[in-house]
Amino acid sequence: MTTKSAAAAARATVYGYPRQGPNRELKKAIEGYWRGRVTPDALRTTAAELRAANWRQLADAGIHEVPTGDFSYYDHVLDATVMVGAIPERHRDAVAADTVDGCFAMARGTQDVAPLEMTKWFDTNYHYLVPELGPDTVFTADSAKQVAELKEALALGLTARPVLVGPVTYLLLAKPAPGVPADFEPLTLLDRLLPVYAEVLADLRAAGAEWVQLDEPALVQDRTPAELNAAERAYRGLGALTDRPKLLIASYFDRLGDALPVLAKAPVDGLALDFTESAAANLDALAAVGGLPGKRLVAGVVNGRNIWVNDLEKSLSTLGTLLGLADRVDVAASCSLLHVPLDTGLERDIEPQLLRWLAFAKQKTAEIVTLAKGLAQGTGTIAAELAANRADLTSRAGSPITRDPAVRSRAAAVTDADTRRSQPYDERAAAQRAQLRLPLLPTTTIGSFPQTGELRTARADLRGGRIDAAGYEERIEAEIQEVISFQEMTGIDVLVHGEAERNDMVQYFAEQLTGYLATQHGWVQSYGTRYVRPPILAGDISRPEPMTVRWTQYAQSLTSRPVKGMLTGPVTMLAWSFVRDDQPLGDTARQVALALRDEVNDLEAAGTSVIQVDEPALRETLPLRSADHPAYLAWATEAFRLSTSGVRPDTQIHTHMCYAEFGDIVQAIDDLDADVISLEAARSHMQVARELAAHGYPREAGPGVYDIHSPRVPSAEEAASLLRTGLKAIPAERLWVNPDCGLKTRGWPETRASLEDLVAAARTVREELSAS
Fold it and tell me: Is there a catalytic annotation at residue 127?
């Protein structure tokens, strides 16, 4: 096909769309269902209505081919596990009785059955449920969900493309099931899995699918020759099927690298590539393999992970370069729009001019449609859109919000000495033991306590003017009193104030720092029914006044036990925000670190002897390609140390990380030079403790013994058993006892019971150690 005809064929599409609805209707329906207030039929009706509304909105906007199968009650990887029949034995009865309830059991666990492990979806803040596989795993096809949702879209008269997790990525995301040797490689099951995918593809073709998208984002990571060979074998086999729809293999989040020639040569019908951050690399690689003659190319030129308006002229230039490299070039976002909020039109508190800098899912859809129109019909047909886009980009670049000379001058003056503690760890540890006088296996929590309905009501009342600031503070003080009293009665050693005043661990700080914008409706799914509103990091960062000292001091006044000061670290402040894209991330991290350094120093001056600076996103933000790791880890660990290195030796610095593959960054964890680190470990059965030991980690650590992402209450013996496992890797004098993560999402009854069991477990193991 000629370049001209390739342009004329250009269409607009997306890979996925936010699931929750404009008012988080899905979250409310699911949580109502869990509480018995919403019937199964009502839940299914809400879900179907949300799917239909999304498809109609996309089609009305000009999207030519809507995605199906991207909807999920909890997680799309979990849905893939059901589709291929890889249900763990302990959950099979629940899934057989009701697929939706079975999925919730696998995701959340029950009082008697543990859930699947949960970790981050590549380098995003979305969490997926990790498949558990072993040499005895038997796959069976169950395409009911995928077929039903395709038929729903077709019934509306729409062109629809089912989206599935690809077989190679599914296996590369999986882990050995409990009891299976740790060196088992799930990818060895590929030949067993492919016939199941073939059956699902045949079912979708029979249901009316012309195209099916198979997502293979794992192939943008560094892959061994054996893994690339597996990808070649998978798509040679699936491509050779006669009873199948056309196959679109999608990659995103980074450059495809060595996998691109493999997929380009495979007998499939199209590829989808990310042309945002990795545009140059994918362009060069595509040209090097001679393009995709006779195939469809879906070009992800609109950033699906950030919220800044697209540079339409730049994207059109990229698309123009691609026209000669494929039979047909379509326009899309770089990945599913699941990772951005729904609609800027819902925002009322952001200045209109600033709002024009932003594009959420609805606005990104319009950008995709505009680009497809310009590509197919010429730029003259979108002249007005191009002019408006240029004006918005110019407005942002020239805004005084984006640059503060004082902030930039301070950041430029940072020296290496500012990022180092004044004494080595051994000397600090001795000073801290003398200061804190904690028992063996000290107990603590990660920071937050349950956010009750009363707390949410208090915040709503403050916003609505029904109470004044003094009335609100009285409610917060009452909550802190309850949290401190409970911890003292339970016997916890290092207390927290519970973070009653905080709506979200990033948003709370963003609202008090210059340079941030906060949204009212910018909800993004983190996992299950957990949605967050990432703030928007729009300009240079500084701290006008203390942010946490008042509440930490108040909590400390209620007890003689140490109360931790609680802050969110600089890397996580970036990772869980929509970060500015007009300067290097390391520069932005340094600005945030300096603001946090001021807060850490003020906490210490106010008498706080233990300060926790959380960095759960340190592993999450690790680049997907190993060649990019050193530069990232250099600025990331420097930013943490810059935040924390201004304190005295006897002030104990903690950090926290959760739900990620920590083994990949153990050296970076060491480089943070925190005195104590707490990490998620309950679902992974203390894997991180073994990884720390293998590295020779020299400081104190608290691998979690209570999985807070499940409503089940672990028994004291279960927690003690995990502690004993942890002691095989970490000496007792350096082992802490804590939950996996903060308790914000849990209810008070389960929190009380679980923490009581946690403290009882610590006492039991202390007694065992003293008796041995």
Answer: no
Residue 105, CA distances (Å) to 265, 289, 711, 763 in order: 41, 46, 10, 31
Q: Which of 420-429, 449-458, 518-527, 694-703 bottoms out in mean pLDDT, i.e. has the lowest?
A: 449-458
Which tokens in the block code for residue 121? 């979806």
pTM of the model: 0.90
pLDDT at position 505 is 86
User: How many whole angstroms separate alpha carbon 542 and alpha carbon 556?
Assistant: 27
pLDDT-based confidence at 2, cuts 50/70/90?
A: very low
The residue to which tokens 């927290």 are assigned:
496
Query: 695: which residues sit within 8 A by CB, 6+ positions away?
Result: 666, 667, 670
Among the options 497, 654, 656, 709, which is catalytic? 709
State the CB neighbour count (10 A cutoff) for residue 64: 17
Q: In angstroms, rounded to a whole number, what is the distance separating the alpha carbons of residues 387 and 96?
A: 56
pLDDT digits (tens, 9 = 90+) for 302-321: 999 999 999 999 999 999 99
The strand pairing partners of 652, in sequence order, are 610
Report the candidate in 640, 704, 756, 643 with the shortest Cα–Cα distance to residue 447.
704
CB 343 within 8 A of CB 360: yes
Both tokens assigned to 222: 């560094």
Strand residue runs (E) in 48-154: 66-68, 118-120, 127-129, 132-133
- Helix spans in 183-256 (H): 190-206, 225-239
What does the block give as tokens for 1?
């096909």
User: For residue 175, is it left (φ>0), alpha (ψ between -120 and 50) or beta?
Assistant: beta
Tell me if 392 sits within 8 A of 357, measured CB to CB: yes
| Cα–Cα distance measured from residue 207 to residue 633, given in angstroms and rounded to the nearest whole number | 48
Spatial separation of the C-alpha atoms in residues 150 and 620, rounded to whole Å: 33
Amino acid 709: pLDDT: 80
H helical segments located in 333-380: 352-355, 361-377
- How far CA 155 is from CA of 18, 56, 151, 540, 696, in Å, comes to 21, 12, 6, 50, 60
Average pLDDT score over residue span 447-457:
88
Give the model's confidence band at 639: pLDDT under 50 very low, under 70 low, under 90 confident, else very high.
Answer: very high
- Work out the pLDDT band at 674, boundaries 50, 70, 90: very high
Summarize pLDDT for 387-419 with one digit per residue, the tens: 999 999 999 999 998 999 999 999 999 999 999
Residue appearing with tokens 């430029």:
412
User: What is the pLDDT, as a whole number, of residue 350?
Assistant: 92
DSSP string across 589-657: HHHHHHHHHHHHHHHHHTT--EEEEE-TTTTTTS-SSGGGHHHHHHHHHHHHHHHHTTS-TTSEEEEEE
The pLDDT value given to residue 664: 81
Q: What is the mean pLDDT of residues 739-748?
A: 91
441 neighbors 762 (Cβ within 8 angstroms): yes
The amino acid occupying position 270 is G
Could you tell me where the beta strands, DSSP code E, fall in 408-507?
none
DSSP string, 351-364: -HHHHTTB--HHHH
Q: Please, are residues 535 and 518 in contact by the beta-carbon 8 Å criterion? A: yes
State pLDDT tens for residues 259-292: 999 999 999 999 999 999 788 999 999 999 999 9
Encoded tokens for 696: 């020779």
**CA-CA distances (angstroms) from residue 558 to 483, 495, 496, 729?**
10, 11, 11, 36
**Quick one: tokens of 109?**
């666990």
- Which pair of structure tokens corresponds to residue 596? 């946090």
d(CA 28, CA 20): 9
Residue type, 537: L
Q: What residue type is 334 in one-letter code?
A: S
Is the pLDDT score of 1 beyond 50?
A: no
Query: pLDDT digits over 348-370, tens only?
Result: 989 999 999 999 999 999 999 99
Distance CA 195, CA 238 (A): 9
Structure tokens at 8: 């004329």
Q: Rounded to an integer, what distance in angstroms lies between the CA atom of residue 709 and that of residue 102?
A: 16
